[in-house]
Amino acid sequence: MEKFRITAFEKDGELLIDEQFEALNDIEAKKIGEDKLQSVSAFDKTHRCIDSKGKLILFHP
């Protein structure tokens, strides 16, 4: 299992979510990240999901 981090922000900089999670691969991490964003109504907000090495998995400006 690899570690990933999902973060999302409001336009004013307010942090909506900042969670670390584990997934088997990038595809699974993208799905988990999207589910976490949906759960806090942040899918259309500025967000990113990265792996433990900083590789961008999911991004929305």
TrEMBL record:
Protein name: YhzD-like protein
Organism, as annotated: Gottfriedia endophytica
Superkingdom per UniProt: Bacteria
